[in-house]
Amino acid sequence: RNPEFKAAADKMEGPLRQIFVEFLERSCTAEFSGFLLYKELGRRLKKTNPVVAEIFSLMSRDEARHAGFLNKGLSDFNLALDLGFLTKARKYTFFKPKFIFYATYLSEKIGYWRYITIFRHLKANPQYQVYPIFKYFDNWCQDENRHGDFFSALLKAQPQFLNDWKAKLWSRFFCLSVYVTMYLNDCQRTAFYEGIGLNTKEFDMHVIIETNRTTARIFPAVPDVENPEFKRKLDRMVEMNQKIIAVGESDDIPLV
């Protein structure tokens, strides 16, 4: 870190400043959640599989470093997240290992494509470099990529998670869940992407397509995201989601 961080934060004003703070908060929470997950897996596997446990511990260190860096970024905006409180107050839900493998593999790979796409875009268009944290996304995203590769190896070592009809259904389900969630969330925050010179929907479709191509190398089945009908349905879901949000914000009783 250098004085450039604080100077960039002080220059940011209006809606972009608010949406950027939200970006830092969401990203920090997501990275810290990854830290908690990997740390817990490392702890539980220490006796039964010490090699895998050590890898999870190293991955948790990566996630903690990312979360700390993002939280330090929030301090440039005179804010900070109490990560210790998140550790104590967070509710934990048990998932079967295969569900963790599918979901976390996708999370890491889609994170890689998001980070590297933003990095390459800003490198080619430096006028949109509103905050220096993006300059570190090249190295940062390689952590995400390596984590995804590790989960790919875990899946290959458990062929029952890849080789039957149930695996195909679960693979498609998790792909759709991750892609749709990202698209709907990002379409609610277009100000952030427009603030760094990106078209939100074009950015998301690029990330989805590249993630899907990568995922097809390991998952037994993936959705056809390059079919134009897929994007049309995503956009229809965005319209429906906006109506649902509007109903929630209204005092009127909607007719069903």
TrEMBL record:
GO terms for biological process: chlorophyll biosynthetic process; photosynthesis. Residues 22-155 form the Rubrerythrin diiron-binding domain. It comes from the Eukaryota. CDD domains: ACSF. GO terms for molecular function: magnesium-protoporphyrin IX monomethyl ester (oxidative) cyclase activity; metal ion binding. The keyword Membrane does not apply. Its cofactor is Fe cation. GO terms for cellular component: chloroplast thylakoid membrane. It catalyses: Mg-protoporphyrin IX 13-monomethyl ester + 3 NADPH + 3 O2 + 2 H(+) = 3,8-divinyl protochlorophyllide a + 3 NADP(+) + 5 H2O. Pathway: Porphyrin-containing compound metabolism; chlorophyll biosynthesis. Its EC number is 1.14.13.81. This is magnesium-protoporphyrin IX monomethyl ester (oxidative) cyclase. It comes from Phyllostachys aurea. The gene is MPIXME.
